[in-house]
Design a protein that fits this description.
The complex is a heterotrimer of chains A (352), B (248) and C (177). By secondary structure, chain A is of the alpha/beta class. Chain A is 43% helix and 20% strand. In chain A, the strands form 3 sheets. A 7-stranded mixed β-sheet of chain A has the order 3-2-4-5-7-6-13, with helices on both faces. In chain A, strands 10-12-11-14-15 form a 5-stranded mixed β-sheet, sandwiched between helices. A two-stranded antiparallel ribbon of chain A has the order 1-8. The longest helix of chain A has 22 residues. Chain C is of the alpha/beta class. Chain C has one domain: Pyruvate-ferredoxin Oxidoreductase, domain 3 (3-Layer(aba) Sandwich), CATH 3.40.920. Chain C is globular and about 40 Å long. The relative contact order of chain C is 0.18. Classes of the chains: A alpha/beta (352), B alpha/beta (248), C alpha/beta (177). Chains A and B meet through helix 3, helix 4 and strand 9 of A and strand 1, strand 2, helix 3 and helix 5 of B.
Chain lengths: 352, 248, 177
């Protein structure tokens, strides 16, 4: 069995990206994810890869676009305000069908906000990151082990569906250390016959482009892409349930908040309250049907986030009025405690 | 009958969308001929900008990539870093390169990024219909400077080659003009040199081409070429601004 | 075993983060669930430094230690800031050679240790942090002394093997107190 090491979330991401065959990292410093860049600056030259510190978040993601277009597994990493800057080119990546991975270790906003953990970029990641009809696959790890595992998954999904993939963590996951078993290095990467690598005079030029002036031509391409999105929804929706089968109180939470919710579930069970947790692992595609089923037996659902209530909208859409959906959130970089969640459950019970 | 001219293999057969009298066609042909003469058509990866030359990916007969507005040098950086053996060039106008993409341009040069930038300076935003560009001349009438560019309000034109030549990462910066046959020949020599320097690994190379935009300047094609000569060249002197052959 | 929620706080440069990583490694070595979280951001630069470590038989929820069962304080401001957060019945380990005041709460167990003075006296330089680690490892019965050399090798930079010996001595000193 592979060896367990104690690793920091941000560094686990970086090392797992290398295991996934990523050989192009383009970054720009921003707390709390700068250690991803620092790690890559040291490691990339050791594995024959490329590390460039760009002049801006914008330049960094455009370098990713170039490297991805040239057929490499390319990665950029940032935190909330930096993702806002990258958003334009992420739309281009989607429009060009380019596989690439973008890490967002969320911090509190809006504006310059704060540097403590947050989940206030859920809307941005899953709904309205940039202009145009498109989606990203959004993976939400909740442990250092998942940070490592999902990095490999992110690159695989990006290549399989030719789409940008976002790994959505937060400052706490990035900064914490936990034991982790690193994934085995990927041995063979998929062929990319569409990449711009020079024709060598052996084939017609490859063109990577998102501009289509004729409306019907553009519509056809977008419809084709949405067919792929349907396949992603069908094949790649991921979630975890924890004591959800007989739960009367069904918590929903993702990322580090799901850890806290798990604690609350255990504590509530000790008090004799049948609590459970539904944890979306892919935020897009959102595990709508699975959540609907999990909520069917519960009395009510309580969504917990480090935001003013963003994922709760998807939870409500999934539950579709069948059960009451309550929300509890902390924001600004404040991390909710299990005790606060238990208190909410008590209040809801007393209120009903 | 003897064949006296054939179109370069560096261009596709697509008909360009450029206006009559526009010098983009000449610039395209120069770049494509240089690629062909150096045997680099099969190696080249070109980056098209946003602006009049946004469709450049349809015209160059090599692998092409279309970048977000102003970001071509960053995109080119990504390509070149993972494919250092390929020739990588950007083809950008003045709005793309010298306004929205200034940071990407300057920092690609500062890093000595081993790419070639073909910079089309026609002192105006063409595709959007003739607004003031960062390179519009003082007094120049545009849609957004209806009384002529007043430097007190709209600032001064940017001299890109002069600016970039101060950076040690720039291996070669030359400004040429497409106003007459003699200067077109010089322009071709400049592009050949820039591509050669890139293949030698000398670092960042840029060829700035003073170009005519008869449509948005409101001039006949021949008048537009004269305008380049009489108005642009005095403000943007032609010549080599730096030539550093240092292998990295 | 219940969950050990350890908060270590002091000035930057006292090795607070190193101590946290060392304890987390010990926990991992003996097969426990562990987590470690350092404070980050502007407060890292100059001034105070703290970190959260948890060692447990159970799944660890939040890695953030808000109510420590064990609090290690290596400077005065940290005592003032964190003493009130310790759970009743918890323990507070104070570097009594640096912090002049004792703990005021009577419902927690004080462990004053003149770690910095001891380190200097024993020629161990600035290894007060590691003395605390040795002390906690013994108090919490995390692992035997004989297991520590192997664990320490994981934590001390491979580039600086000369540091191993001093660290081991400091661990042994804390362990024997």
């Amino acid at each position: 069995m592979a060896r367990k090491v104690l690793a920091k979330g941000n560094e686990a991401l970086a090392e797992a990206a290398i295991a996934a065959g990523c050989r192009g990292f383009f970054g720009y410093p921003i707390t709390p994810q700068t250690d991803v860049a620092a790690y890559m600056a040291r490691r990339m030259p050791q594995v024959g890869g490329v590390y460039v510190q760009a002049e801006s978040e914008i330049a960094a993601v455009n370098m990713v676009m170039g490297a991805a277009a040239a057929g490499a597994r390319a990665l950029t990493s940032s935190s909330s305000p930096g993702i806002s800057l990258k958003s334009e080119t992420i739309s281009y990546l989607a429009g060009c069908d380019l596989p690439a991975v973008i890490i967002n270790m969320q911090r509190a906003g809006p504006g310059l906000g704060g540097i403590q953990p947050s989940q206030a970029d859920y809307f941005q990641a899953t709904k309205g990151l940039a202009h145009g009809d498109f989606h990203l696959i959004v993976l939400a790890p909740y442990s250092v082990q998942e940070m490592a595992d999902f990095m490999v998954l992110a690159f695989d999904l990006a290549d399989r569906y030719r789409t940008p993939v976002m790994l959505l963590g937060d400052g706490m996951l990035g900064q914490m250390m936990e034991p982790v078993v690193f994934p085995e290095p990927v041995k063979t990467l998929p062929e990319k016959s569409w990449a711009v690598t020079g024709t060598k005079g052996k084939r017609p030029p490859n063109i990577i482009n998102s501009l289509y002036i004729q409306p019907d031509e553009l519509e056809t391409l977008v419809l084709e892409r949405y067919k792929r999105y349907e396949a992603i929804q069908r094949e790649e929706t991921r979630f975890e349930t924890f004591f959800a089968d007989d739960a009367e109180v069904l918590l929903t939470a993702y990322g580090s908040t799901a850890r806290i919710a798990k604690s609350a579930v255990l504590a509530l069970r000790e008090k004799g309250v049948k609590a459970g947790l539904f944890r979306p692992v892919t935020l897009w595609p959102f595990p709508q049907e699975a959540l609907r089923q999990a909520a069917a037996a519960a009395e009510y659902v309580l969504c917990v986030e480090m935001s003013m209530g963003q994922m709760v909208e998807d939870v409500r859409l999934a539950v579709n009025g069948a059960k009451p959906v309550h929300f509890y959130g902390r924001t600004g970089g404040v991390v909710p405690s299990p005790a606060e969640i238990i208190e909410q459950v008590t209040r809801i019970r007393e209120g009903s | 009958m003897a064949v006296v001219f054939t179109k370069t293999q560096g261009l596709t057969d697509a008909q360009t969308h450029y206006c009559p009298g526009c010098t983009h066609g000449i610039a395209h042909r120069i770049v494509a001929e240089a690629l062909e003469e150096l045997g680099l058509v099969g190696s080249a990866v070109g980056i098209a900008p946003v602006g009049c030359s946004v469709f450049a990916y349809q015209y160059f007969n090599c692998d092409m990539l279309q970048a977000p507005h102003g970001r071509a040098p960053a995109v080119a950086t990504g390509v070149k870093r993972v494919r250092p053996e390929n020739l990588v060039f950007t083809y950008q106008g003045d709005g793309d390169l010298a306004a929205i993409g200034t940071a990407e341009t300057v920092h690609a040069a500062a890093r000595g990024e081993n790419i070639t930038v073909i910079f089309i300076n026609n002192a105006i935003y063409g595709m959007t219909g003739g607004q003031m560009a960062p390179t519009s001349l003082p007094g120049q009438v545009t849609q957004t400077t209806p009384n002529g560019r007043d430097p007190r309000i709209a600032g001064f034109p940017v001299r890109i080659c002069e600016m970039l030549s101060t950076l040690p990462g720039t291996a070669y910066a030359e400004r040429v003009s497409l106003d007459c046959v003699k200067n077109v020949r010089k322009a071709k020599q400049a592009v050949l040199k820039a591509f050669t320097y890139q293949m030698q690994g000398y670092g960042f190379t840029i060829v700035e081409m003073l170009s005519a935009c008869p449509t948005n300047w409101g001039l006949a094609p021949t008048e537009a070429l004269a305008w380049v000569r009489d108005n642009m060249i005095p403000y943007y002197p032609l010549g080599v601004f730096c030539d550093r052959r240092v292998e990295r | 075993m219940s969950t050990h929620r350890i908060l270590i706080a002091g000035f930057g440069g006292q090795g607070v983060q190193f101590a946290g990583r060392l304890l987390a490694h010990v926990g991992m070595y003996v097969g426990k669930e562990v987590s470690y979280l350092s404070s980050y951001g502007p407060e890292m630069r100059g001034g105070t430094s703290n970190c959260s470590v948890q060692i447990s038989d159970k799944f660890i929820a939040s890695p953030l230690v808000l109510e420590p069962t064990e609090l290690v304080v290596m400077n005065g401001p940290s005592l003032e800031k964190f003493e009130k957060t310790v759970v009743p019945g918890g323990r507070i380990y104070i570097d009594s050679s640096i912090v002049a005041k004792p703990a005021v709460r009577s419902d927690i167990e004080p462990h004053p240790i003149p770690a910095t003075a001891l380190a200097e006296e024993m020629g161990l330089g600035r290894l007060a942090n590691v003395i605390f680690c040795g002390y906690l490892i013994k108090k919490l019965d995390l692992c035997p002394l004989s297991a520590l050399p192997a664990i320490l090798k994981e934590v001390v930079s491979a580039k600086r093997p000369e540091l191993l010996e001093g660290n081991l001595q400091a661990l042994a000193l804390g362990f024997s107190m």
